[in-house]
Every structure is written in structure tokens, then in C-alpha cells.
């Protein structure tokens, strides 16, 4: 058994310790009170995990098997696949109101999902390289993403509108974010 990532997530004042492992291509989740949940949707390594800011038991995962899923912790038989990814799902982020989920893909696309229906709302196009990370504005539907092609991109993720592109990095843009008040972005 090889640990892929270990992440402490705090959501709605409940703390979960998630331990993502690769075990016969399955995923094992550990949460508070030593409860173990086994999800078998992914068939490859896990690259991304995100929790909803409004539903503490709703988790999204993405991996090298070109798949994304939404899971409800404690509902081992409930999962919603996010279909249509053509490459590895490298990053995930829920909007601050929990209504939308962005999945960054290594093919350079970002897919925006409606959480209520589970349907694809839009696909954001731009970078010529794989998406390294995605972030939502803290008070809206603006999406910021970094790419392996040395650029960072900004879109309105609700309306599928390109807003800006930042270049000048000499290599992959491996991290970035909005300031907590949303006044600035740091690509």
C-alpha cells in the first residue's frame, strides 16, 4: 500500500482526516472516528481532491484514469461520475457557494459542473498546456487557473467568458490564488 496524499480538511466546523491510498487501484478514505469508506470508482492514481464549502460530506476526486467523481462520505454506494474528461483530472475546486465545481484537466481544459444536477455547465478553453490548479474567486464565479505552458488564465466560470491571460513566467505556473478579500489575484 502506497500513500498518495494526506490531507486535513476543515469544512463547516467539522474536521475530517482523509487519507488517500492506492490499494489494488481502489481508494480508501479515513475520516473522523476511525470510520473507513472504500470507493472503487477510480482505476488509477488520484491527483486531486476537494470538499464542498457548504456540504461537508460532499467530496470531489480526480485522477490519472481521466475520471472525476463526486462522493458523499457515509454513503458508500452513492457516487456521481463527471463524464467527458479526455485526460488526467489534475485539480478540483468548489465555488465559495458550493454550487459549481471546476475540474482542471491535463488537456488544457477546465470543465465547470453544476453540483445540483451533476451536469456539465460549460468548458473553459485557453491554455496550450495542462492545467496545474484551479481556484474560484472568494465571492463569485471567476475562475483562475495555472498551466504548464507558463500562463495563468481567468474566466467567468458561470457564463463561460474569457477575461484575461497572464504570461511572463519562465516555466509551469504551479500555484496561484485570490487574496481572501478577492481584491487581488496572485498567479
Automatic annotation (TrEMBL):
UniProt keyword list: Repeat, WD repeat
**Which Pfam families did the record assign?**
WD40
* Domain of life (superkingdom): Eukaryota
Ranges in coiled-coil conformation:
none
Residue windows of the WD repeats = 82-123, 124-156
- What Gene3D superfamilies does UniProt report for this protein, alphabetically? YVTN repeat-like/Quinoprotein amine dehydrogenase (2.130.10.10)
Q: What is this protein called?
A: Angio-associated migratory cell protein
Give the species this sequence originates from: Coptis chinensis
Amino acid at each position: 500500500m502506497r500513500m498518495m496524499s494526506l490531507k486535513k480538511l476543515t469544512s463547516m466546523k467539522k474536521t475530517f482526516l482523509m487519507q488517500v491510498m492506492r490499494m489494488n487501484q481502489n481508494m480508501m478514505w479515513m475520516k473522523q472516528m476511525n470510520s473507513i469508506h472504500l470507493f472503487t470508482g477510480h482505476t488509477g492514481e488520484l491527483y486531486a481532491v476537494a470538499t464542498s464549502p457548504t456540504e461537508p460530506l460532499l467530496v470531489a476526486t480526480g485522477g490519472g484514469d481521466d475520471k472525476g467523481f463526486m462522493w458523499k462520505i457515509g454513503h458508500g454506494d452513492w457516487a456521481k461520475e463527471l463524464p467527458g474528461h479526455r485526460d488526467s483530472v489534475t485539480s478540483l475546486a468548489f465555488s465559495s457557494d458550493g454550487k459549481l465545481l471546476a475540474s482542471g484537466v491535463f488537456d488544457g481544459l477546465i470543465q465547470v459542473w453544476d453540483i445540483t444536477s451533476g451536469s456539465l455547465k460549460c468548458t473553459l478553453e485557453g491554455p496550450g498546456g495542462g492545467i496545474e490548479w484551479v481556484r474560484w474567486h472568494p465571492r463569485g464565479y471567476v475562475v483562475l487557473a495555472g498551466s504548464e505552458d507558463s500562463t495563468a488564465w481567468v474566466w467567468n466560470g458561470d457564463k463561460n467568458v474569457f477575461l484575461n491571460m497572464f504570461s511572463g513566467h519562465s516555466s509551469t505556473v504551479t500555484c496561484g490564488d485570490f487574496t481572501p478579500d478577492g481584491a487581488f489575484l496572485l498567479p
